[in-house]
Amino acid sequence: MDSNSKTVVVTGFGPFRQYLVNSSWEAVKELSKRGLGENIDLHIVQLPVVYQKAKEQVFKIWATLQPLLTVHVGLASSTKALIILEQCGKNKGYQEMDACGFHPEGGCCMLDGPEKIESTINMKTLWKNISVEGIDIIFSRDAGRYICDYTYYTSLYYGNGRAAFIHVPLLSKSITAEFLGKALQAIILEMLKQCGEERE
């Protein structure tokens, strides 16, 4: 299987801190029910909020599945009703402790890696082309220097830029897992158009 395959991997994160239900994983599970069309082989993976374990799982995704695209979904607990499209991952500045009380040595993701890696997906174009009723979508160049950013950089590094990151808000009465799953489906299908995988 080569990288021109029709495999797409979408990840969400497990519980951390006070967030016993992580909206990113709930949204990804809903996306899995909906799928990405019959031409796309969708795999979903839950990542732990632990630097080293998340890194190992991301490496495994790229080494074993060799997807066309890997999309990571994370919780942005500080935002209200916003979906954030992240353009790039950063290599350094990881001082915040993970769920195991650990942070990377020297606050660095990849010792030999560049300062930042850009996604091959143009998030600004995506942002202009997509709208989801009931929620605002913005794009960002700073994924926050925690597990989300770390995971994104790792995936961009191993996947030669063929990764994307979407921050989703906390679940609420108006922002349900089903709602976010539907939004993820629309956003990822738009990303696949950029990958030259536009469905009929």
What can you see in these coordinates?
- By secondary structure, this protein is an alpha/beta fold.
- 32% of the residues lie in helices and 22% in strands.
- The chain has helices spanning 23-34, 51-65, 123-129, 147-158, 177-194, and strands spanning 7-13, 41-47, 69-75, 82-86, 88-90, 116-118, 136-140, 163-168.
- The strands form 2 sheets. A 6-stranded mixed beta sheet has the order 2-1-3-8-4-7, sandwiched between helices. The chain has a two-stranded antiparallel ribbon with strand order 5-6.
- The radius of gyration is 15 Å and the shape is globular.
- The mean pLDDT is 93.
What best-fitting shape do the alpha-carbon axes yield?
globular
**Tally of strands:** 8
Spans with pLDDT under 50 lasting ≥5 residues? Answer: none
Structural class: alpha/beta
State the separation between the terminal residues, measured CA to CA. 23 Å
Overall pLDDT confidence: 93
User: Into which percent range does the helicity of residues fall?
Assistant: 25-40%
How many individual helices?
Answer: 5
Q: Biggest sheet: strands, sense, closure?
A: 6 strands, mixed
Enumerate the strands of the largest sheet in spatial order, edge to edge or round the barrel: 2-1-3-8-4-7
Radius of gyration: 15 Å
Strand coverage percent: 15-25%
The helix/strand series, from N terminus to C terminus, equals EHEHEEEEHEHEH
